[in-house]
Amino acid sequence: MRIVSIITAIIVAGLLYLLVMERETLMAWTGAEAPAETDVPEEAQVDTATAIQNVTVNSVRVMARRSVAQEVDSAVILRGETQAVRQVEVRAETSGKVVSDPLRNGTLVEAGQLLCEIDPGTREVSKREALAKLAEAKALLPESRARLAEAKAQVPAAEAAILEAEANIPAAEAALSEARAGVPAAEAALAEAEARVPEVESRLIEAESRVPEAKARLREAEAAVPAAQAALEEAQSRVPEAEARVQQAEAQVREAEINLNASQSLARDGFTAQTRLASAEAAFETAKAQVQTAQAGLLAAASGIQAAKSNVETARASVQAAQSGIRNAEAGVIAARTQIANAKAGVQSARSQIEGARARVSSALSGVEGAKTAIASTKSQLEGAQAGVQAAMTGEETALSAIQSAEAGVAAADTEIDRLSIHAPFGGLLETDTAELGALMQPGSACATVIQLNPVKIVAYAPEASVARIEVGAQAGARLVSGREVTGDVSFVSRSADPATRTFRVELEVPNEDLSIRDGQTADIAIEAEGAQAHLVPQSALTLNDEGDLGLRTVSDTETAAFMPVTVLRDTRQGVWVTGLPDTVDIIILGQEYVTDGVPLAPSFEEVIQ
């Protein structure tokens, strides 16, 4: 390109030299007569002479044009195409066969009009099944809440049982202390009985005087027999109660075992929660602990019977001892020997009393252990009751979850049924036939394409130089390829440029009540905008400075070259309209590539040459 410009400049310079300096020779060589002096205006002759005189050796000859700014028209001219204001491809959201007759393309449809109807199939059955599950889940909720109330009611009873068992411990410990306190007394009695043997032997002579004492002891021993028998009967009366408790505890064990087996069976089939199974296991363990407690009570009752029998025997032995004392006292020496025997019997009795005291200590210890076992049992019952509450709460939550799940199933069934009917989202025109009768629809299958052409959009892309002059709401007109002219308003101007073309999308909205304007027609668009002062220059006169700015080389008042940046307003066949220049300016149209700012010029103007 630079070689061509150099050659062009040389040719132009040669022509200028011939036209200016060798005009007559050129005219003679071409065979044309030189024009008369009257043909050239006097001012032109003066300007030419002045220009020739001002040419210096270092001046660069260029061709220039004096340009005066003009106001260009106020319209932004674009080319675009028509588009439907709304277009949607209606698709199915479920599967099934189409059972509705198709609508043909070109049919006008209203908003909400049925386009495609899909065979419901088994969806109604699924909905009824979901409703049945919902009713079943709601029916289980009262039962779960009743179980929760029952489980909560068992907690206070278990807590009261714990308090009662804890209250029994002090009494059992007091009985233990009392029994332990009886042991030293029994041991003292034994020592006393053993000490009586020498005394009896030494008092053999005094045996007769002890007859009243022996009789008194007899009466005392006889009086102790009914008390011992009453204690024995009382101890024996406790045995049926203890046996009843054992039987009750064993019945509870069997019931808990049955519940545990039922819970394990239901858990294996997935019909119950793990918490309910754990509750059944805890109830089974609690029942077994209660059996052990009842058996311990039965053993304690048996021990009481043995102790009472021992007391009866002791009382009877005391009676016999007293009787023997009487006989011994009456019999003299034989009585003394009998007293010795009685004394020894007293020693045995004292030993029996010691054994009885120790038995009472053991019984009291068993009572304390039984009380502690009762506390542990009641605590287990409390834990079982609390576990039952948790299980009941879990059951209630499970019932509520089942209700929510059933409601979700009903909603899903309703949604699936609603999706069987595909309706037009807005009023418009069918661009395609709707799905054919019997066609199998899948999720995402197209039912029809609906477009809305009233109003219609005309879309164009404005260059960067023109987009700033376009405003939303501005009046605009368009000429279609058919020659029809329509008017409308600018409805949208994009704020983001297309990355490929660096242009901005502009949309017009035009009425189309008769739907005569189709989608995709080409249109020439004129958008109203403010006018601007611009210069019409040849496109070849545009150049770049060292910074890469677009502009023109001009002739300054001192006839030196000056670069002026410009903005391209419009490109036409006649040239380029640019802004950014003074109202009147001398523009270099030939030779601008060979000069820079400040270079002296010898300009020749088009008007003078012409």
TrEMBL record:
Residues 458-530 form the CusB-like beta-barrel domain. Residues 86-451 form the Multidrug resistance protein MdtA-like barrel-sandwich hybrid domain. This is Multidrug resistance efflux pump. Keywords: Coiled coil. Pfam families: Beta-barrel_RND_2 (PF25954), BSH_RND (PF25917). GO terms for cellular component: efflux pump complex. It comes from Sagittula marina. The keyword Coiled coil applies. Belongs to the membrane fusion protein (MFP) (TC 8.A.1) family. The keyword Coiled coil applies. PANTHER family: BLR2860 PROTEIN, MULTIDRUG RESISTANCE PROTEIN MDTA. InterPro entries: Beta-barrel_RND_2, MdtA-like_BSH, RND_pump_MFP. GO terms for molecular function: efflux transmembrane transporter activity. Residues 134-266 form a coiled coil.
